[in-house]
Amino acid sequence: MTDLRALLARVADHAAAYRAGADEARVFPDAALGTARAALGGPLPDVGIPPGDVIEQLIGALEPVTVATAGPRYFGFVTGGALDSATAADVLAVGWDQLAYNHLTSPAAAIAEEVAGEWLLGVLGLPADASFGFVTGAQGANTVCLAAARHKVLADDGWDVERDGMAGAPRVRIVATEERHATIDRALRLLGFGAACLEPVATDANGALDAGALRDALTAGPHGPTVVCLQAGNVNTGACDPLGAAVAEAHEHGAWAHVDGAFGLWAGASARTRPLVDGVESADSWATDGHKWLNVPYDSGFAFCAHPDAHVAAMAYTAAYLTGTSLPEVRSPGDYVPESSRRARGVATWAALRELGRSGVADLVDRCCALAQRFASQLGDVNGITVANDVVLNQVLVRFGDDDATTDDVVTLVQRSGECWMGSTTWRGRRYMRISVSNWRTTERDVDRSVAAITRAFGESAGALRAVPAS
Ligand SMILES: *Cc1c(COP(=O)(O)O)cnc(C)c1O
User: Fold this and answer.
1) Lowest-pLDDT range, 134-143, 160-169, 313-322, 372-381?
2) Rounded to an integer, what distance in angstroms lies between the CA atom of residue 168 and that of residue 350?
3) Can you tell me the mean pLDDT for 213-218?
4) pLDDT value for 328
5) What is the mean pLDDT of the chain?
């Protein structure tokens, strides 16, 4: 027998040391990827090795090519580093090896998810009687929510989409912000609508939906089953659609209103940012991520629905689950998601919420927003650097020397420096550095240090990566 206790202790020691070291380590690795591949690779040997050797080989081969997303100076992709409690809880859930399909496969997983889901509704300011599914991320959540929408708007039109499918179904209008996230389009593809059915609605200077343009689109018709896709938290600018007005508009036209709030829904958790998502609670469905602003480990997202019957009708296998068999007082997690056998995701989410408490979640959101402001004001003060968006949340778009090539050069140099990591984006035809502050570990010192690295890269950029054009 392996000494499992020693093996887990070794992994725990190692992971803890790694995470502590992430404060000072390079953020993006500079090791050769080929070396890591060679260390792991080759054909699968016939003969196995002891578990301890497996773990040593993994550490040796892969650690040099990890990205320090757990550290305080990773500002890519709106993904925050996991909280300590949530990390340990996730390890615990894996150690318990729970199957989170229903109360028979694991009462523990079912109950953790039930309680964590109710807590989430409270923290986010959503209706207490909304249903929830714990999915892999906002992609999964958007898909589940739009499946529930598809069920409801077609059922209201006399069509049973779960039985009869999409071929021959009444046409469903999908009206969405032109600045929607690409996962909305993919959800529409997966659900048989096709991405081309989408009718884009104009947005304002910061990328928030123009409610008047939505009204015009809905009034113009055609009138029939309609789903409106709104957004809290534009992935570039952080802008939130005017949700109260937009949902009211959708409902006036009999449409289902869905909100993709992968990170922006968390604005609802703080009194300071709550006005950005005023009226969000009146929507019909909401998608958000746990692995973004709640800082739980990947993969963790949540699909919420104001119409539990539609949610279950779209996801559950059989009507028998609606009535419940044994232990009917325990919610069945598998009825709200597209998977059956799944990890006990509720455990890590419960842990994060319990560690932070309501005020801690609000504080995390406020702190990240304040640090985004700090980035914007410090970078905006540097000659030749422009902050392009209205920094309403945790996202900052930065332009260097007002040209695409310089901006791309600066991003590349900063990424290579290892000091911090931020990605680049194209927004409205121009290139930007995109900074997302969403990690509980980030401090003012980390922002100042990152600003210094960015400013240094800007200074080096002119000649470092390409010839200076003759003027
Ligand atoms: C990140 C993001 C998504 C996709 O989330 P995943 O967790 O990667 O599936 C969807 N919508 C918005 C607005 C996002 O920011």
Assistant:
1) 313-322
2) 43
3) 98
4) 62
5) 94
Among 136, 144, 183, say which to mutate for ligand 1: greatest number of ligand atoms within 8 Å of CB. Answer: 183
Distance in Å, CA 298 to ligand 1 centroid: 12
- Residue extents of the structural domains in the chain: 88-352
- Over residues 444-470, the pLDDT tens digits come to 999 999 999 999 999 998 755 554 444
pLDDT confidence of 334, banded at 50, 70, 90? very high
Report the atom number in ligand 1 closest to the C-alpha of 289. 7
What fold characterizes domain 88-352? Aspartate Aminotransferase; domain 2 (3.40.640)
Query: What is the C-alpha separation between 24 and 243, in angstroms, rounded?
Result: 41
